[in-house]
Amino acid sequence: MELDPVLLARLQFAFTIIYHIIFPAFTIGLSAYIATLCVIWMRTGKEHYRTLAQFWTKIFAVSFAMGVTSGIVLSYQFGTNWSRFSAVLGNVIGPMIGYEVIVAFFLEATFLGAMLFGWNRMPPWLHTLSAIAVAAGTLMSAFWILSANSWMQTPAGYEMRDGIAYPLDWLDIVFNPSFPYRLAHMVTAAYLTTSFVVLAVGARYIIAGTHLEHGQTMLRMAVGFAAIVAPLQLFIGDQHGLNTLKHQPTKIAAIEAHWDGSTPGELVLFAWPDEKAEMNRFAITIPHGASIMLTHSWDGLFPGLKSFPPQDRPPVLPPFFAFRAMVGIGLLMIATGWIGALLWWRGRLFTTRWYLWPAQYVWWIGFVAVICGWIVTETGRQPWVAYGVFRTADAVSPVAAHTVLTTLVLFVVVYSIVFGFGIYYLNRLIVRGPTESPLPPSVLPAPAWSVAAGGGKPVTETKS
Amino acid sequence: MESYLPVIWAAIMALAVAMYVILDGFDLGVGILFPWAETEHERDLMMNSVAPFWDGNETWLVLGGAGMLVTFPLAYSIILPALYLPVIIMLLALVFRGVAFEFRWTGITSRRHWSFVFAAGSTLAAFCQGVILGGLIQGIKVENGAFAGGSFDWATPFAIMCGLGVVAGYGLLGATWLVMKTEGSVANRARIEARLLLLLVLAFMAIVSIWTPLAFERIATRWFSLPNILFFWWVPAATALVAVAAWRALATGNETVPFLAAIGLFVLGYLGLLISNFPYIIPPSLTIWQTASSPSTHVFMLIGMLMMLPIILGYMVFVYWIFGGKVREGEGYH
């Protein structure tokens, strides 16, 4: 059998980047949560919040280690597997990745050390500042990476000369048409993903009757956040969709499985899109539904897949199904947030078992939604690596297919081992829970200046 | 101005690679020395001496990759496919050792296993980095601005030798770091290891210094023709002096000079490689000018770099200062 080097390179990149995005989706939100806890701790002086911050810092450290190591891989894969992409688009897209490293990556990686190990080396305010620096770093990291990815979706501010892209206007490049929507959508997704992990862990403690006070704080914070932000995300996603229709009509046509652009779009609730026959099988639809959503008119028209030649169409199944999974989870999140808020208002949030019991298992839904969203946007961009500019098939490296296959297998093996142990250890940390075991100051003499600057707060440390 | 931009960026990238090699070098080196520690307790101490820093250190590797994509995209698009296997194996080794920093603390029984993973990952990553260096020096087959060779072109005795040399070099950095940052049995053993590794590193430096001019005509011309030899003779002389200083400091019980001298050896060896190969970024076919990105890209990135580099160096120094002095017993957040 002849191996297809493009397909193998795509599989490898899909695998490594899906694995990677799990961790930023969590650490962007978690670092902000930890920084928030640190700030509350400083303002209220309640040890309770410090213990929570310490607990989540341990979880953060394990996740960040897996995220950072898999992220380094990606910064080299542009060269190892997609060298033509780098040579052709490097002039334009490179600086966004470069800025991510110098503005964000260094900040978060350097202050992570201070945040993890600085509990008894720094005064509380400086520790809180380190946590804020890490959170800011992850956020700016998202800014630049989303800018780079958005440029691949909606290229702007460049010109092609002799087959190579050259920059014309850096503001147009960085703030390309889809960037604001995609940044807002992804950062909100990361915060929501984290809030559902916190929500699940809180519910788990309340059900189990352990770490009750901490569990209640977590559940309250997460429910309040989800109740407000999950509906907001629906609105942002809708705006993003309208932007996509304007700039990437083939992606919208694939998402909606809309074949014939001369008829109003049906909202396809379920179907099996058949790319060969150019139609949907087993379709359950709401007539005119997609037209109303996308054009805000009953008979509004938007391009269908048949409006484009077959070689310019994306595959239909991945964006179609991944989009429905993402939206479904989004609606579930809104329901979870609103029902939780209602119970909270009635004073029954911590006693309603029919709510708490399923809630303890929802920790993974945000991750699935994030991955599905990325599948929608990345497969929906095909067959282009930079939409309308450069085809994926032309971007691949001159590396033998069997070599790519070998490393793909290695990645799957190594990442599976690391992921398996990572989940196992994270679960163990969660089972152990937030523990208050401050060591007497005599065991660990704090540096003199941290006592002086610490405002008299005890600087303590937990040790496993 | 435009023709100077690639030179400025070559200097910045050379600095980034040097920062990476020195900084991640010592924390990889601590992993390379893991097998020779006697107890897991000693390994705890060794790991804690680098744990607050490794993440920031490894970021220089990301800058090396991303920076080359930005400023020399053509070089990036040729070097990485050419050195595909060593690069990916290095990255996977770094994945293993990176997570070992965290996973090792989560259980008592599994601690030994993750110690092994940490040591193996550190050693393999260092070895691959040496192979990458060797593979680059010995040359890459380029046709029409793209890599045109096979998957195993890099696998030569010279590249393997470079791999071993980098393992020894990082081991030396790690050992002298432990001399500086730890006390008791760990520091005492590190002092002995450092002397052995110093001899080994000098041997590798000597081999490279003899091998490369013999094998590559252009390198011999660069060093031994007149007037070049008048400009460059001080590099080997300074290397010898630093080596003597390192040896004596290790013998007299000095705690910081050995680490500084090890850095000095790295800087001098690195300078030697730059002298041998400048202005080639892919010897012997492509120069920094031939692979540079557009002037607009260089300027846009340079603005950010000049603003951020002092800030990055500033907070890095700050974090090293926070964690200054000897690593304390039981330090960590686990």
Q: Any chance you could write out the topology, listing elements then pairs?
A:
The complex is a heterodimer of chains A (464) and B (334).
Chain A: H1 5-44, H2 47-80, H3 83-117, H4 124-153, E1 158-161, E2 164-167, H5 170-174, H6 179-208, H7 212-247, H8 249-255, E3 267-274, E4 279-286, H9 289-295, H10 317-345, H11 353-359, H12 365-379, E5 384-386, E6 390-391, H13 401-432, H14 448-453
Antiparallel strand pairs in A: 1-2, 3-4, 5-6
Helix pairs in contact in A: 1-2, 1-4, 1-6, 1-12, 1-13, 2-3, 2-13, 3-4, 4-6, 6-7, 6-11, 6-12, 7-8, 7-10, 10-12
Chain B: H1 5-32, H2 40-50, H3 54-71, H4 73-82, H5 84-103, H6 111-137, E1 142-143, E2 146-147, H7 157-181, H8 184-215, H9 217-224, H10 228-232, H11 234-252, H12 257-277, E3 280-282, E4 286-287, H13 288-291, H14 295-322
What does this 3D model show about the protein?
The complex is a heterodimer of chains A (464) and B (334). With 464 residues, chain A is mainly alpha-helical. Chain A has one domain (5-245, 318-453). Chain A is 67% helix and 6% strand. Chain A has helices at 5-44, 47-80, 83-117, 124-153, 170-174, 179-208, 212-247, 249-255, 289-295, 317-345, 353-359, 365-379, 401-432, 448-453; strands at residues 158-161, 164-167, 267-274, 279-286, 384-386, 390-391. In chain A, strands 1-2 form a two-stranded antiparallel sheet. Chain B has 334 residues and is mostly helical. Chain B has one domain (2-322). In chain B, a hairpin with a 3-residue loop joins strand 3 and strand 4 (286-287). Chain B starts with a helix and ends in a 12-residue tail after the last helix. In chain B, 53% of the residues are buried. At the A-B interface, helix 2, helix 3 and helix 13 of A face helix 3, helix 4, helix 5, strand 2 and helix 14 of B.
